[in-house]
Design brief:
Largest sheet: 5 strands, mixed
CATH class of the largest domain: Alpha Beta
Shape: globular
Number of helices: 13
Structural class: alpha/beta
Strand content: 15-25%
Order of helices and strands: HHHEEEEEHEEEHEHEEEHHHEHHHEH
Strand order of the largest sheet: 5-4-3-6-9
Distance between the termini: 31 Å
Bound molecules: zinc ion
CATH topology of the largest domain: Nucleotidyltransferase, domain 5
Mean pLDDT: 90
Low-confidence stretches: 1-6
């Protein structure tokens, strides 16, 4: 049986072109009409009408004219999102607080609200109350209509249903109570997703993943989580259960992991491992050591441990390189504290552990969004849905 011919109405074609234009802006930043037509794949003849509609709807504005060096003729006026366009309420979870922010389509954080909450022990009701309060604080300060609420949860989430299947760090988030409580309180669309995936989305819309087709965003520190953008799309896997690279076995007969398996990557490349090693090597303040403190110590023994930490991180990253051939690996969390010294060590060890034809194609970067990547990604969840862009 042949597939049916799909006929699009003029209105639908208009919506498709509008989505492409918004997506090109999200991917590339401010653009002239000519660049917008080219990058969005929209006919040059219709870009003026589409852009004008977006300006009249209050989404876009024209910036001051810029003349590119060496170009003659009329200077271009780049189009970009207005300061109050695409407002989203974004939520993520710290160890002792629920964090919320108002984020615009440019990726600017306009307002922040922090509600103290012991997230690892809070009941579902306590957690829901804290999230509703945090979102309420953000909405009260909003200068314009808010499109929706995005929530980044450190756990297994099914974004299609809004159900959190389980969360080790925030057990009270399990179920569908969070999204229901926020939807009932404010009548807005609520989008829920895993925090590592939200970080990848934050990088894709607003960070070093902008305009990059295939990259991985890797959370380091207490655990190891991965968010993947493949060929321009956030990859979620069946039931939203992707990203568990931390529990890939890297050491046969290795140590017990908290997940119930043995020899997982998490048993050799997290803060728990780093602190145990530091204690064994009798480094000062071993129980509280992190990458930043290790670099600051700077003793020969500390430097040796830093090299091993970098190598152990590279073990898991090499799996990503071998499997996906990403253009970039964007590192978050503890590694960022180790600065350029640790980044360069990780990159060096990664090259040694990767196949020759893959090792030169990948850049290792410390995330410039880092701690805000989850919040920005939560906003990206909303923008993707409301602007009808594929996430
Ligand atoms: Zn494990």
């Amino acid at each position: 049986m042949s597939s049916p011919t799909i006929l699009l109405s003029n209105r639908q074609i208009g919506d498709v072109n509008r989505s492409r234009v918004l997506r090109a802006l999200c991917d590339h930043g401010p653009l002239s009409r000519a660049d917008l037509a080219r990058l969005a794949g929209v006919p040059r003849a219709t870009i003026g009408t589409i852009a004008q509609g977006l300006v009249e709807d209050g989404l876009l504005e024209e910036h001051a004219p810029t003349r590119e060096a060496g170009r003659v003729g009329k200077p271009s006026r780049p189009l970009w999102f207005r300061d109050d366009a695409g407002l989203c309420a974004a939520v993520d979870f710290g160890a002792d607080a629920v964090r919320a922010a108002l984020v615009n389509a440019r990726g600017d954080v306009l307002t922040r609200v922090t509600v103290p909450c012991p997230t690892s022990t809070a009941s579902a009701a306590q957690l829901e109350a804290a999230v509703v309060e945090a979102v309420g604080g953000v909405l009260r300060g909003s200068p314009a209509e808010v499109l929706g609420v995005g929530i980044a949860v450190p756990g297994v989430c099914d974004p299609a249903t809004g159900i959190v299947r389980g969360s080790g760090p925030v057990p009270g988030a399990a179920g569908s109570g969070l999204s229901e409580a926020v939807a009932v309180a404010y009548g807005l669309p609520v989008l829920v997703d895993n925090d590592a995936r939200a970080q990848a989305l934050g990088e894709k819309w607003f960070g070093d993943g902008r305009g990059i087709a295939t990259f991985a965003s890797v959370q380091t520190g207490v655990g190891l989580g991965v968010g993947l953008v493949l060929d321009g799309e956030l990859y979620r896997g069946a039931g939203g259960a992707t990203g568990e690279l931390g529990h890939t076995v890297v050491a046969v007969d290795g140590a017990d992991c908290h997940c119930g398996l043995t020899g997982c990557w998490e048993t050799i490349a997290t803060l728990r491992w780093l602190r145990a090693e530091a204690k064994r090597l009798r480094l000062p303040d071993a129980e509280r050591l992190d990458a930043a403190a290790l670099v600051a110590l700077g003793t020969p023994r500390a430097n040796d441990l830093l090299v091993v930490y970098a190598d152990h991180l590279a073990v898991g990253l090499a799996t990503l390189v071998q499997l996906l051939a990403p253009e970039r690996l964007l590192l978050h969390g503890d590694v960022v504290g180790g600065g350029e010294l640790l980044r360069a060590l990780v990159e060096e060890r990664l090259r040694e552990r990767s196949l020759p034809h893959l090792r030169d194609g990948v850049e290792v970067l410390l995330s410039s969004l880092d701690q805000d990547a989850g919040l920005l990604g939560a906003a990206g969840l909303v923008l993707s849905e409301r602007f009808a862009l594929a996430a």
